[in-house]
Each structure stands twice: as structure tokens, then as C-alpha cells.
Amino acid sequence: MKKTLRAVLMAGVAVGLAGCGSDEPTTTSQVKAEGETKEPIYQPHDWQPKTRDLDGFGREYTDAIKIVDGIYQARGTANAVMVETDEGNILIDTGLAGRPLQENTLADKLNRVNGKPFSHIVLTHAHADHYSGIKEFANDDTEVIVQREFLFNQQYLKDLIPHVMPKNKLFFPNDIPDLPDFGGLTTKLIQKAYPIVEPETVIDSEPYEFTTGGQKFVVYHTPGAEGYDNVSVWMPERKILFTGDVFGHMFGMWPNLTTIRGERARFTRPYVESLNLMLELEPEMIIPSHFYPVQGKEYIKETITRTRDAVQYVDDAVIEGMNAGKDVYTLMEEIKLPEELYLFEAHGKLSWGVKSIWEAYTGWFKMETANEMYSVPMQATYPELIELVGSTGPIINKAQSNLDSGELEKALYFIEMVEAVEPENAQNKKLKYDVLVAMKERANDINHYETMFLNDLVTRAKAAL
């Protein structure tokens, strides 16, 4: 393989090892058959996941799972999927790097199936949980295939590791080990050691076809819910589509168009085009890179159609609202999906999608005030505002009144005003804790990002009491 995967130090590998497959070593050489564990092979058609319900996904399986004849899945934070051919194995995504800190890695599980080398590796997009394990699978003869945008995305995400790694740790605590920081030195070492893939084949918008061992594969550029660089792999004779993260983390979810952990926006119209392509292909099975394979031609068609129509509906509603002169906060409150277009919100949220679509079209400047153009935030006025009021007492009373009436966001604004002037005010700190607990209860553990962020805020507010 023509590659220069830059030296991966132990610290660099440790960016995302935890939560990848089983923690227990195994000596078995058998591929686990269907039905031998409590975790299902395929996604239930009535699946309604809530946040962290699937924490530790795949750890029940100490071996690769046979999905259908010749196709195996090694489960982890993200999955690695292998297709057997007479001329070598095909791999779709690698999962997180597992070596040298883990036993029984995703690579170990798949290698026990037949021990053949990998002739092709398709990396569906430039998130580390999908490509950082590449050294465990590739050899000098492996053809690595990516979409052109992958090259830019892997670099900018590496450049931002000191900024995004603490956020990723908050939202995915089991996937990033606890490491001493040494004043930022650890993060800098990880950033320096992080792998950069130099692929043999880079595709643009045109499909890329190859045939190995008598089996045909078509790689399509399918911009999706996790980035513009997403590709999908189609096996036309078998009607099986490997979708990467085109649907996001879960099939049937509202897409996470902009993650609150911080990343580039994902755009609705290319996503709709990707969904239309998938409907044209008429897959009988899809195998995403997270969680379960999905079977059932009609169920797949119905869910993709509903996802497409829901995204298009919201995109149209945002544009209509913008043209009518409505502000983004009004649209976040007003736009709802009709019942027949319902998508669960375990990862993305519809209201966040409204804001993401707005900003993807027009950017950060909303022309509501001249101050948007300058560097002084509203918070800079808080001390002077409280000075005009005369004390923090009336502000705290107003925050309490808002909490009592269920206006949690307003209550938090007033609490933050007091916090800017009197950070150790005990009454205000207790009130902040109560508001955050109420927000957490309202969230009801449905959306992963909302729940994890509120959990962290509640924990810190409680520690400050």
C-alpha cells in the first residue's frame, strides 16, 4: 500500500481506543453464529433508541458476526465490515485503532474468519472511528479508496484536536481514555502522532467500480448526515448497500446536521440527492458503519423515503420562514414535522437542524444588530446592568420566578448575569443547579448530545455548591 501513515505514538493511538470491541481476550477461532447472544444481529424495525442505550455496543461478541454468507461485521464504537472474495477480502471502514493497547481488536476478530489479506479498503469518511485502525488491516498491496473531501477533512480535524478532543471526551467518555494532560503536552503529542491516510484511489462525484473474486463493487459519493465526504459501497448482484454514516449514527434518525461537539456543517440538498440515489438502487439490505445491519426491502425503502421527505420538508420550511422575515429562534420553535414524517432524535434534534440549515445558507450574520459585527459580547454589559439595578437580589428573584413558571432558558440567562458579578453567590449557585437539573429532566435522556452536556453541567454545578 502506497501510504505514509505518520508515526503513531502510544499517546496518539490512545485518542480513541476505549470502547472498541471487547475488553476480554479470547482464544476461540470460531465465527459466532446468529442468535447466540442477547444483542440482535439486525436492527429491529420498531427501534426507538435513547441516549447511551447502546453504550458498549458489540462487546457481547468476542468474534466477528456473520451477517450473510461471505459478509462479516466486527462491532465496536464504529464497526468494521468485511466481504470475502476468492481474491482477498474487501473492508468497509476499520473502526477505531485497537493496537497496541487492546486485546481482541476488530482486526483480530475479522482476521480469524479466514486470515486472507485485504485487497481493498474503502474508508467511508474522515472520522477517526472509521479509519484510524487502518494499519491493522492494510499491507503494501492494499488499495485504499476515499472521496476527495476526505483528504481535507482528516487534516482539519487533526489540526483541531486540542480544541475538539475535550468535547469528544465529554460526549463519548468511554471512547477516549483518561490521560494526564501535563499542561497540554499530551494533547499536542496526540495531535502530532495522529495518522494521516494517503490513499491509492481518490474519487470525486463519479462512481468507482472494481471487481474482485468475481464480485462487483461500486463506490458512490453519498454526502450525508456525517459529512460531505461520505461514500457508500454497492454490491449490485446481491442488492447490499454499505452506507457508512450517510444516515448518521442510526438508521431512521433525524440527521445531526451540525454536531454541538463542533464540526463543519452537513448540507441538506446533497443529502437529499444521496437518499434519492439509494432509493433508485433499491437495496434489500443496508449495512451502516454504526450499530445494526438493516434488512427488508420495503422497510428500507419506507425509512429512506421518510428521511428524505422529512429533511426536504424542514429545508423548505426554513427557507419559507427566512423569506417571510422570521428569525431563527422563531423557526426553531415553530417548525415541526408532520406525524407521518417522524424521525427519532437520539443523535440529531429537529430544532438544531433548523438552526444548522439557517446558518448553512446565510452564515453567522443575521443583521439584527450592529453589535453582531464586533467583538464585544452581551455578557460584557452584565456588571453594569446589575450596578444599575442596585444589587443582584432582584435578578436572582426573577430567575427563581422563571424557574417556578418553567421558563428555564430565561432563568439561566439571569443566573449567568449574577454569576458574572458574584461567581460565589451561594443562592445563585443553588439556583443554577436547580435549573440545570430541570433541563436534564425535561430532556428525558432522549438525545445523546443534549443529555451528556447537561449531565456534565449538572455535575459541575453540584460540585460548586
From TrEMBL:
Molecular function in Gene Ontology: protein dimerization activity
Domain Metallo-beta-lactamase residue range list: 77-290
Cited PROSITE patterns: PROKAR_LIPOPROTEIN (PS51257)
Keywords: Signal
Signal peptide: 1-18
Domain of life: Bacteria
SUPFAM superfamilies: Metallo-hydrolase/oxidoreductase
Name by which UniProt lists this protein: Metallo-beta-lactamase domain-containing protein
Source species of the chain: Endozoicomonas numazuensis
Lineage, opening ranks: Bacteria, Pseudomonadati, Pseudomonadota, Gammaproteobacteria, Oceanospirillales
